[in-house]
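Lecture notes, unit on protein representations.

Consider one protein chain, 512 amino acids long.
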Amino acid sequence: MLIRVDKFGGRVPQILDPAVLPENRSQEAANCRFDRGGVTALRNDLPMADQVKVGTLLTIYRYSDGNFFTWLSDVDVCAAPDPADVYGRVYYTENGEFKVTDKNKYKEGGNAYPMESYNPCPPAPTTAPTVVAESILTAVTALTITDSNCIEADGTYNLIFSGGGGSGATGTYTIASNLITAVNLATGGVYTSNPAVSTQTGDGAVIATGVQDQTLMETRGYVYTFVNGYGAEGPPSPVSTLIDIFDGNTATISAMALSPDTATQKYNITKKRIYRLNQSSTGAQYQFVAEVDITDTGYSDTVLDSALGEVLATTEWDAPPVGIQGIIALPNGSLVGFVGNLLCYSVPGYPHAWPASYQKSTDHAIVALGAFGTTVGVLTSGVPYLAVGNDPSNVVMETMDLGHSCMSKKGTVQAGDVIVYPSPEGLVAIGSGIREVITEGVMTRKDWQDLYNPETINGYYWEGKYIGFYENNGVKSGFMFDIKSKDLTDLTFYAAAGYRDPGTGVLFLVLE
């Protein structure tokens, strides 16, 4: 009798009797795949790099030049969310600290990459600037004859204005029979003190009467910010003492702090930006005055109100909270991460800026994050959430009707536009158009927990499959689950860390 077997598939732990197994399922399947027209063995691994750091690697990341970044702890890594980034920046969280390295910094001093990093978030200066208004403008408002005797031919002549520390006034005087008979202020001027006014020739004298033009006086405060070598700007300093000054007068700024860089906090601060309060018809706002080197502690401001630059945008641009983890990049240029039960966003296009107003809270501790489009799947120790919105300033949090908690941060995988994570019930997939326990029908809740100990899983996505590695009763092993066909295959090896290259689809593993 001929028995033909032309359909093959993975194992189904929930079916105990082999007699009732579907014809395309197996009792045992290990180190094989079923998506190439039959049973195909997994290819042999190819060694790609030697381990440099001593210890068990728990996180790896392949940099754009092919070198590997490695860590002995759970680290979240993402490239700068800017396709035009000329620095080759990579942002990562290590032991609760938010860091950045670049194409030059990561290899400074050795090959246990990344060797060096910066804190990417310039802090607010703690010292307010000191500001002094050096002069008060006086407006020339009238001319007075103090000596009318003047030996000149009859006629009307221009007066000469000199001194006074300013310019702008013009006037005339009229001579009749060697006497000044009239003076006229043609155009008023603005000076720091009353100017001297004299005739063309002769002994006649005229004085200019000046008063402070209160319509030109304004109240000003100054702040400054730190700017790092990437051009990233931090929040402003405390406001200086307010001064009353006339537009165009010199304000002398001093006592601006030097760089906050220390041995333990490397911010790479290279510049300061100065802003001043401008009270216009649209309201009071701080506008750009000048950028100076980090070593400059003072500046003389003579910029007119009409020549001020952009409005200060970084007032709420704080660093992310201490302990930030789980960072991922969104298509809108924003990074998102979490601390405890707090979901945190960066300003789109500015990975160093994490306003507190962008934070959202959940009822349970957040375990992991994933995304489809700009919608963030917030996986917690309780009910999962969806954070919906293109702009972090107006994100709406929605609880999911599929209420399965997440049991492992490292087991959470981004499979294209689908998030796959280990729950108490099995592997759960959420995304646009999908919200289900994808291992349902293949294994029961008890099978799942007894076989694969989901709390220990670290997972990866590879060629349409979820690759999971786990530890159960001291034994380390793995499994492979095809998300579409639901073929389950055991793996007889274990990896403590891995990285799927999004450009090539190649999965790199650190095997034990």
